[in-house]
Write a structure and sequence with these properties.
This protein folds into two domains: about 250 residues, Aldolase class I (TIM Barrel, Alpha-Beta Barrel); about 70 residues, Orthogonal Bundle (Non-ribosomal Peptide Synthetase Peptidyl Carrier Protein, Chain A). Strands 3, 4, 5, 6, 7, 8, 9, 10 and 11 form a nine-stranded parallel beta sheet that branches. It has a two-stranded antiparallel sheet with strand order 1-2. It is globular. By secondary structure, the chain is of the alpha/beta class.
């Protein structure tokens, strides 16, 4: 069986890679695609930056054929700017356009974008409708349960957004006020799936960091798929681990040290190819701790990885890690 978002065909229960600022760039997406991600998104792109063709915003439009299906995610506070950004994104030929109404960080929400639109549903509906009208491909939305505990309006939001033509909805199981604190609440996500009026795919997001949790969200709340964010950072294997568990009911063996080193190196090499030597090396530093999480006495090696500007030195350190820790696995 397959699941459809507009004309896009996905597996019956797809696993989505969340759009994460400063994380979900092409190098990171490359390793996630290799390890089972079914649908991926760009980092979110500022509508204002895209209209000005700011270099950083324009770079985020880069997509590669092997990534498909892939969505470009936009955020902004002005309807006209978002409409124009939607047109530019559409011309970049993604498989879909996603609108971010979920980002909780102050730099976004306090400017009236991201999760701030949960306080102005008519404006959210108008903005979405304008992008649906100009886009030649499916438009989807990612949002949260509401602004805070007293305004959990996602059930109303889901119906209104479906009515104006979105093709799928991803819901993070927290309010904006919660940020990323406390457990995600999937109860309202489940209620939306039970609503007979809702016919578009509903994806759940929040706290899916094990195969068991993904299975629980599918069976308990009936979601059409799950979106995985922080749990994939430095651990792209989670996608195939979830798929194997759902198909076979057993766990895949965790990646070996050699596999961790190889994937980390692939990520680094792509980062340098796409960003250039200096930026590629510097921006890779945020990933090393996650790739080698759980290794004893790793601090010394981590310091070498995050302070070196030499590709050859980094490779030497990675090979040393391989040799030192692989012997402990035997």
């Amino acid at each position: 069986m397959t699941l459809k978002i507009g004309n896009i065909s996905l597996p019956d229960f797809p696993l989505l890679l969340a759009p994460m600022e400063d994380v979900s760039d092409p190098p990171f997406r490359y390793v996630c695609k290799q390890h089972g991600a079914d649908l991926m998104y760009t980092e979110f792109i500022s509508s204002e930056g895209l209209i000005r063709m700011a270099r950083k915003s324009k770079m985020k439009l880069d997509i590669f054929e092997y990534e498909r299906p892939i969505g470009i995610q936009l955020f902004g506070s002005d309807v006209d700017s978002m409409r124009e950004a939607g047109r530019i994104a559409d011309e970049a030929e993604p498989d879909l356009i996603d609108i971010n109404y979920g980002c909780p960080v102050k730099a976004v929400a306090c400017r009236g974008a991201g999760a701030a639109l949960l306080q102005d549903i008519p404006k959210m509906v108008e903005m979405t409708s304008e992008i649906v009208k100009i886009a030649t491909r499916p438009v989807t939305v990612k949002t949260r349960l509401g602004w805070d505990e007293s305004t959990k309006n996602i059930e109303d939001v889901a119906e209104r957004l479906q009515d104006i033509g979105i093709a799928a909805l991803t819901i993070h199981g927290r309010t904006r006020a919660q940020l990323y604190k406390g457990p995600a609440d999937w109860t309202l996500i489940g209620k939306i799936k039970e609503n007979p009026r809702i016919t578009i795919p509903i994806f759940g997001n929040g706290d899916v960091d094990t195969p068991e949790k993904a299975m629980e969200m599918k069976n308990r709340y009936g979601v059409d798929g799950v979106m995985i964010g922080r749990a994939s950072i430095g651990y792209p294997w989670i996608f195939n681990e979830i798929k194997h568990f759902m198909d076979e009911g057993t766990h895949l063996s965790p990646p070996t040290i050699s596999q961790r080193v190889d994937t980390c190196r692939s990520h680094l090499d792509f980062s340098i190819r796409w960003k250039g030597d200096y930026v590629g090396i510097v921006e890779m530093r945020r990933h090393y701790t996650n790739y080698f999480k759980g290794l004893d006495h790793f601090k010394e090696h981590r310091m070498k990885l995050v302070t070196s500007n030499s590709y050859d030195e980094i490779l030497q350190t990675l090979e040393f890690i391989r040799e030192r820790y692989a012997s402990a696995e035997v």
